Amino acid sequence: MAGSASDTIAVVGAGVMGRNITALALGRGVDVVLVDVSGDVLESARAEIAQLLRHGQFMGAFPASQATGTLTTTLSSGDVADADVVIEAITEDASLKARVMAELSATVPAGVPLITNTSGIPIAELAKSVQRPAELAGVHFMNPSYLIEMVEVVRGPQTGEDAMAAILALLGRLGRKTVVVRDAPGFVTSRLLHPMINEAARIVAAGTASVEDVDQLMHGCLGHPTGPLRTADLIGLDNLADALRLLAERTGNSTFEPCELLTEKVRAGDLGRKTGRGFYNYGEVLS
C-alpha cells in the first residue's frame, strides 16, 4: 500500500467540505464513494458536485485530458470497505467524529489509511477511537478544495510511515502541494486564521470599522486574498464557532471563544454563503 496510487476513495460526510473534496478527486480521475446519513443531502450533493466540476474545468483546475472519476453515493458506511483511502469530512464535533472514526476503523481492512479533515481537533485525540492509530492522519483541505492547491497534512504521534506514504501519494495524484506539520490543537492554519477572524468580528462589533472596511484593509495592506470576514462566510460561521470553541477548550485560552457577534449570527441562522447571509448578504440561499 505504501506510496501506491488510489483508484477509489471514500468520503464520509456530504457537507461543504465533503462535496469539495469529492469534486477535487473526481476531477483528477479518482472514483469516489460519498457517504452521508441523509438521502436528501446526497441528492443535493450530486447536483452541487457537478457544478463544482464544471467550475473547476472552467478554471483549469483539472487536467484537460483527464477523464472524470465515477461518483457513487450511499447511506451505508459499510460501503467504504473497498476504498483505498477513507476521508472523514463531517461537522467539527469531536464526539461525533470519534464515533464515526471508530465505525470506519472497524469497517475498513488493515492497511487502509484513515484521513480526518478536522480543522483543529488533535489527531492524538481522535486516534483513541480507532483500532489502528498508525493508519490515521489529518489532512486539512481548504475551501474550495479543487482550487486551493496547498494542504496541511498533520502527522499524529502514532501515524506510521506506510500510512503517510499512501496519503502523500494520494495528495500528489490529486495535484496538491503538501506541508506536513506536527499534531497540536488547531495545527497551523486554524490556529492562526480562526482567531484572526474572531478579532475581525470584534472590531466590527466595537464600531471601529465596517465589515467591508476590515476586509478591504486586510486585502489591500496585508495581502489577504479575500479578507477575514468574507473568508468566514466561506468557511461557515457555525463551523467557525465550533472550531473556535474546540480551540479554546484544548489550549485553555478563553480569548479563542467565539465573540458575541459571531454567536449572534449563528443563533440567527446567518451562517455565510451556504445560507445566503453571514457577514455579507449573498441574495439567495446557495445549495
UniProtKB/TrEMBL annotation:
GO molecular function: NAD+ binding; oxidoreductase activity, acting on the CH-OH group of donors, NAD or NADP as acceptor
Keyword NAD listed: yes
Pathway named in the protein's UniProt entry: Lipid metabolism; butanoate metabolism
Entry's Gene Ontology BP terms: fatty acid metabolic process
Domain 3-hydroxyacyl-CoA dehydrogenase C-terminal: 186-282
Entry-linked InterPro entries: 3-OHacyl-CoA_DH, 3-OHacyl-CoA_DH_NAD-bd, 3HC_DH_C, 6-PGluconate_DH-like_C_sf, 6PGD_dom2, NAD(P)-bd_dom_sf
Taxonomic superkingdom: Bacteria
Site description Important for catalytic activity, residues in chain: H140
PANTHER family with a match to the protein in the record: 3-HYDROXYACYL-COA DEHYDROGENASE FAMILY PROTEIN, 3-HYDROXYBUTYRYL-COA DEHYDROGENASE
Protein name from the UniProt record: 3-hydroxyacyl-CoA dehydrogenase NAD-binding protein
Taxonomic lineage: Bacteria, Bacillati, Actinomycetota, Actinomycetes, Kitasatosporales
